[in-house]
Amino acid sequence: MLDTAPLQDPYRALLDAAATVADADGPGPAAPNGEWNADQILAHVCLVGAATVAVLAGVAAGANTTYDNRIALDAWTIEQSIAHAGGGAGLRDRISAQAAALCALAGGAALSDAELATLVPARLLSNDTLLVDQPMPLRDIVTGLAEVELPGHTKQLLALLPDRAVAGAAR
Hints:
Layout: H1 5-23, H2 38-60, E1 67-68, H3 75-85, H4 88-107, H5 113-116, E2 119-126, E3 129-137, H6 138-158, H7 163-170
Parallel strand pairs: 1-2
Antiparallel strand pairs: 2-3
Helix pairs in contact: 1-4, 1-6, 2-3, 2-4, 2-6, 3-4
């Protein structure tokens, strides 16, 4: 079993940042050229969350599984996820549900410590840079989500806020 508090807190912070961006008066600064807007960031997080749920469920089911985030970087797939979720509010709902599912799987009796130690072939990219291309313990996949992926996208969302809204969000 895994302590899920370190996973719940970054999800809460990301969802709070997403709500703050959605509620901001007027448009914030445009995403820098080549960067994602708020819905694209949230769709990416949804795709990563779904892949993480799938790998946890796969290990729990005794299946051979892999963890690969390349589909979560695909522009067409991101746009389809936005459309299927119905936009930002739907994406936030999905992320909330995925957080609950991840915490239930990783923190409950669904996975033993031995299963959380299972080496999963992983390929992770960011900005066209290969970060990981080797087996990783399942536990480290969840920890990476909590410590790197979610906080990074929370900062990315907050960078979209107008300056006056950033000051309020930081309080």
